Amino acid sequence: MKKQVPLKELQSRINRFRSKMSETDAHWQMAVIFSKVNLYYFTGTMQDGMLFIPRDDEAVLWVRRSYERAVDESLFPNIKPMNSYRDAAAAVSAFPQEVYMETEVVPLAMLQRFKKYFPVKEVKSLDAQLAAIRSVKSDYEQSLMLESGKIHQRVFEDMVPKILREGMSETELATELFSILVREGHHGLARFSMFDCEMILGHVCFGESSIYPTYFNGPGGHYGMSPAVPLLGSHERKLKKGDLVFIDVACGVDGYHTDKTMTYMFGSPLPDEVIAEHNRCVEIQNKIASMLKPGAIPSEIYEHIMDSLDTDFLKNFMGFGGRTVKFLGHGIGLHIDEMPVIAKGFNKPMQEGMFFALEPKKGIAKVGMVGIENTFLVTPDGGRCITGDNPGLIPVY
Question: Per-residue pLDDT for 351 more than 90?
Answer without folding.
Answer: yes
